[in-house]
Structure formats: C-alpha cells, structure tokens
Amino acid sequence: MMTDQRQYGIGNYLLFFLDQIGVSEQLKKWKDYQGLVNQDPNWDREFQKSIKDTAQIRADFDGFRHGANRDHSAHPEVTNMLRTHPELFVDTEATRDMKISGQSFSDTNIWFVQTSDTEKRLFCRQMLGIVHGACGVFLQALSRGQFCRGSIALGVGTDALRFFGEEREEIFGPVLEQAHYLESKVSVYPRIVVEETFPRYIEGRLWNLNELAVGTREYATKQFENFYLNGMKDLISVDEDGCLILDYAGKNCSELFAGWFESERISRSEFYSKIIDLVIAERRRFAVHLKKPHIADKYFKLHRYLESNQEFWI
After folding, report:
1. CA distance 219 to 226
2. How many domains does the chain divide into?
3. Which residues of 51-82 are buried (b: 16+ CB within 10 A; e: fewer)?
C-alpha cells in the first residue's frame, strides 16, 4: 500500500499558502473581462500588475530561502558536522526528486514539499527552507506595501499530476483545503497562521542527544535533524489572540536575515520603519478615507505586532 501511495505522490506535505489582500476584489470589478480587455484599460492594467506582483513574490521567496539556508550552512554547528560526517549532506536516490514545488494563480502563491520519515535529515532542510522563505517574502511584501495573509499547514496531499506525465507542479487534498481555511478564515489580519499540527510534528521528531554516544554517525545524524527542526521551532510564536503564527518580525528572524541586509546594503532599522509607516498609512486609509473602521482595526493589530518587535530591528 505504501508503495502505491509513494508512486502517486500521496503522503504528508508541508505547505505554505500566501494570498495578496485586495487583488482579486479589484479584478472582480471587471467580471466580463473577455469583453472588456479592449474597452477598459483599467482591467488590463490591474491584471498585468497582479502578474508582476505574483512573479516578484515568487522571486523573493526563492531569494530568502536560499539566502537563509546558505547562512545556516555556514553555522559553526553545521560546518563541524560537514567536516566530520560529510555524507550527511549527500543526496541519495530516494531523495533525488525531492524539492520545494510551487504554483501560482491570480493573487495566490503556494509552496510545498513532501515530508518523509526516511532520509529525514534532507527533508528537514527543505521544510526549513519553506519556513525561511515564508518569513522573508512576507517582510519584503510589506516593505513594498503589498499586504498579504498566509498559512502553514501540514497534512495529507498528493501531487499526482506529475506521475501522469504532467509538467505542472500542483498539489491537491486535505492539506491544501486546510491551508486555505487558515488563510481565509483564521488569519483575519495580515499574518501567517500556523496549523497546530506543525509544531507537534517538530516536537515529536526532536531527538534526546543525551541518550546517544557523542562522535558516532548516529549522534551526528540526530544532531543534524535537531538543528533544522529547532530552526523551524524558533520561528513559531503565539499571537495575542492565541493563534500560532510565524514570527517573521521577531528576534530570530531579525538575526536570520542579517546577512541578507548586509549583502543588499540595506539598513534594517530603515527597512523596518518603512514597513511600519506603510501599515499606518493603510490603516488611516481605511479609517479616514474609506470609512471602514472594521478593516482599519486589522491593520491596527498588524501595527501592534510590528511595534512589539521593533527593538530587534534597531
């Protein structure tokens, strides 16, 4: 049974779901787009903008994911493992096709990777890559005034299309449904909600290294897995309403992306202050100009979260 499931891509997946707020509503103003493309330039302009924004978000995700993983690979703990047990970093036939996949449509981006109990050390790196990319792309979108909601879900799914000769990277199943539910119904304001299953998954797979002999391959393997599992655990926090969220503006993320800010020659404090100013302006736009206080309150919550972490970006 397991062979058939693997053959058709059925398994547990970690999925990041990101939606740009307001884009679909803007496009829906021109429902009969086939008849309006040549008549109303507003539709085509908004449509082209949504395509450009989506492409930029995908590029940002890849950039932050690779950058953060590169910095992690330079961590003393990892370089020591690489020196003593280089085989831990070598891919195998079982994981040669393992990669982070993604799909986009309209105002939505999705990234996912299949998890596994075999070759767990390699899957942990890819899972951490999704978490890193999620934090980075959310921050970068905010800095451009692109407000998003997102979710991280872990559950059953399938990317079966590629097993039938399709080149598209698409995922189906309960994990996608759950991620969409968390983003659309639970997140409420711009943030990334984390399904409770995910931190339980992490806790259940952390090893007690005190029970193993230091210097052995088994010890190095478990240490490797713990390093990446703890990397994910450190980026999850509890919001003021009790929801689990990715702490993309917290202390750990500020330190995680220090190398990126340095390479891009961007001041962290100026970057963060700009985000806060954009959030204040958006809140004011809904409260004063659009007379929608209930929406303005959502940006007040975002502002409060950002201010509570401002000390880490000075």
Report:
1. 10
2. 2
3. eebbeebbebbbbbbebbbebbeeeeebeebe
How does pLDDT run along the chain (314 residues), one tens digit per residue? 344 444 556 888 999 999 999 765 555 554 545 555 555 666 667 777 777 888 889 999 988 888 777 777 777 877 887 788 777 766 554 454 467 888 887 789 999 988 875 556 667 888 999 999 999 999 999 999 999 999 999 999 988 666 566 666 788 899 999 999 999 999 999 999 999 999 999 999 898 998 888 888 888 888 888 988 999 999 999 999 999 999 999 999 999 898 889 888 999 999 999 999 999 999 999 999 899 999 999 999 999 999 999 999 98
Concatenate the DSSP letters of all residues of 179-224 into one string: HHHIIIII--SSSEEE-THHHHHHHHH---GGGS-TTSHHHHHHHH
Same domain, 217 and 281: no
Q: 103: which strand partners?
A: 110
173 and 284 inside one domain: no
Bridging pattern class, strands 108-114 and 10-20: antiparallel
In whole angstroms, what is the distance from residue 307 CA to residue 134 CA? 20
Burial environment of residue 274 by CB neighbours within 10 A (0 to 12, 13 to 18, 19 or more): middle
Residues 16 and 101 in one domain: yes
Dihedral class, residue 75 (left if φ above 0, else alpha if ψ from -120 to 50, else beta): beta
